[in-house]
């Protein structure tokens, strides 16, 4: 591997770009400025990242790695809904602590494109929701809940970032968080099985509990069971 495309060169360029981003926002991320800060020539940058979009994707991924490190530091508790609440608060705090990174990660999008690290963040949220479903605490399917939480938490964080620091209403995040979580999760004690509202909750819990583990059913029967559970989970 040539020195120009070595991991050390890539890391040096990313660190330089991250520093420029933190100090001056995305406007500071010109290829000329990044090359100067990293001490490399433009051809080296293009050989490593392909183009400006490739560099931005890599910097966004660099930010997501920091985000995921903080997410993984949250040890799960016995209450999966409380863990979702803590995860939401950590998400917003990360955005307000690293606003330039956050805007690049969540506010600068291309249709149909999401950095690989963003997929990891989504998978982590989905895993938390699967645990919530297994506990019988989820009202709607896992993916629907994940999309709802991801969209609203990002929207709130971007709104707070755009507000002047002295006029920032941190209570906005709490209000939206509690409203969203109340709409996708249940109380600690689910309704009795006889209640119509409890059927989707228990269907989701059973589907999540099955996971990929083998059952006494045949493959065709398992597919049918999952289809029925998914129908029950989305019934009103």
UniProtKB/TrEMBL annotation:
Coiled-coil annotated spans? none
HTH tetR-type domain residues: 7-67
Please name one Pfam family that this protein belongs to. Answer: TetR_N
**Which PROSITE patterns does this entry report, sorted A to Z?**
HTH_TETR_2
GO MF, one example = DNA-binding transcription factor activity
Q: Which UniProt keywords apply?
A: DNA-binding
The residues that make up the annotated DNA-binding region are 30-49
Record PANTHER family: HTH-TYPE TRANSCRIPTIONAL REGULATOR RUTR (PTHR30055), TETR-FAMILY REGULATORY PROTEIN (PTHR30055:SF220)
Q: What is this protein called?
A: TetR/AcrR family transcriptional regulator
């Amino acid at each position: 591997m040539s020195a120009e495309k070595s991991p050390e060169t890539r890391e040096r360029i990313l660190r330089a770009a991250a520093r420029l981003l933190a100090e001056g926002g995305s406007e500071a991320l010109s290829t000329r400025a990044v090359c100067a800060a990293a001490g490399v020539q433009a051809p080296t940058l293009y050989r490593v990242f392909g183009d400006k979009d490739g560099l931005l994707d890599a910097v966004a991924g660099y930010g997501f790695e920091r985000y995921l490190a903080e997410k993984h530091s949250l040890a799960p508790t016995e209450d999966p809904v409380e863990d979702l609440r803590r995860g939401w608060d950590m998400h917003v705090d990360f955005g307000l602590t690293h606003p330039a990174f956050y805007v690049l990660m969540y506010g600068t999008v291309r249709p149909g494109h999401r950095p690989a690290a963003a997929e990891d963040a989504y998978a982590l949220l989905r895993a938390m929701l699967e645990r919530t479903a297994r506990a019988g605490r989820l009202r709607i399917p896992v993916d629907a809940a994940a999309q709802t939480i991801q969209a609203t938490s990002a929207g709130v964080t971007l709104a707070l970032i755009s507000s002047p620091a002295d006029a920032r209403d941190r209570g906005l995040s709490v209000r939206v968080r509690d409203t969203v979580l109340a709409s996708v999760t249940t109380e600690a004690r689910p309704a009795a099985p006889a209640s119509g509202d409890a059927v989707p909750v228990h269907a989701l819990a059973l589907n999540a509990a099955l996971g990929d583990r083998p059952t006494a059913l045949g493959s065709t029967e398992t597919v049918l069971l999952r289809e029925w559970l998914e129908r029950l989970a989305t019934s009103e």
